[in-house]
Amino acid sequence: MTKIYYQKDADLSLIQAKKVAVVGYGSQGHAHSLNLKNSGVDVVVALRDGSKSKAKAESDGLTVKSVSEAAQWADVIMMLAPDTKQPKIYREEIEPYLKSGKTLMFAHGFNIRYGTITPPTNVDVSMIAPKSPGHRVRETYIEGGGVPSLLAVHQDISGQAKQQALAYADALGSTRVGVLETTFTEETETDLFGEQAVLCGGVSELVKAGFETLVAAGYQPEIAYFECLHELKLIVDLMYRGGLNFMRYSVSDTAEMGDYYAGPQVINEESRHVMRQLLTNIQNGQFAKDWIAENEAGLPNFNKTRQLEQESLLEKVGADLRSLMPYVNPVRVKPGE
Fold first, then answer.
1. 178: which of 12, 24, 145, 223 lies 20 to 30 Å off by Cα?
2. Which of 126, 134, 135 lies closest to 108 in space, CA to CA?
């Protein structure tokens, strides 16, 4: 069984006694920084020269330093820059200042798992990974709650790496709901697999395939959009609250029969074979190598695919329909963003 920690297991004073630098001020960075500050932690935001996030962080009442200045100043350094940007930032602006007794932290194990960052052997290395986008980390904290987080320790030189990581999670609000213990390898591999096979890749392709099948058969794109994308939220919300059982309990018997009848035909043994191959490529490092190489080449394939997807019929129809439904709080992403 997974070990789960709560507020009673954490000593907030351990992180309150440290100077913490949060590298990056994106979705996670802003939430971590503000929650830490509100929890009584001495925190600064570490940003590279010319960062557009500097003004935002300062307007939020936070102190901003360059990454190298923050790395020299801090006892604890939390890496929240994008995965593929972290190695260069680490080599140039953090590694020279990682002295004995400091702690290097991550919210995703990618760079430790694939060896693109190799910390010195005289520092603690740990991870607190909230299982939520940053805006929810912040919102739930303000509401008096929190989101679950994963905890892992890669190096425990001080003998207090786990307890300090728990204190960090406590400052985020995660111990209010539970912090699950894992490893850098397990977090990285399951996170990548979930994104690729289900949460992003799997769901996106399923929606697109359903929409395109209906449109190709002569049905109106607007009707296809409602049936294959819009109503997905209703189903996922039911799963979120009570699992597959509650979803099946809540829909009609006809819909439930469609689940049992069609589901295994759409997601069949061939689909499962592909999933196993995706997992293999994550485990053996092939996906990481491909993604790193794509970044080093300037993202030509990534950017081309992004543009094609943004200009698809599904996205155009969806944007027009969502503009008629202000209650969904619609947003529109312009091609190229």
1. 24
2. 126
Per the residue annotation, which of 108, 135, 154, 273 is the catalytic one? 108
The average pLDDT across 32-55 equals 96
pTM, to two decimals: 0.93
Three-class SS of 111-164: HHHCCCCCCCCCCEEEEEEECCCHHHHHHHHHCCCCCCEEEEEEECCCCCHHHH
Question: What's the sign of the alpha-carbon dihedral 173, 192, 290, 313?
Answer: negative
Mean pLDDT of the chain: 96
d(CA 107, CA 234): 30
Computed on alpha carbons and rounded to an integer, the radius of gyration of the chain in Å comes to 22
**Token output for 36:** 């830490």
What is the Cα–Cα distance from 287 to 289, expressed in whole angstroms?
5
The token duo for 140 is: 């739930």
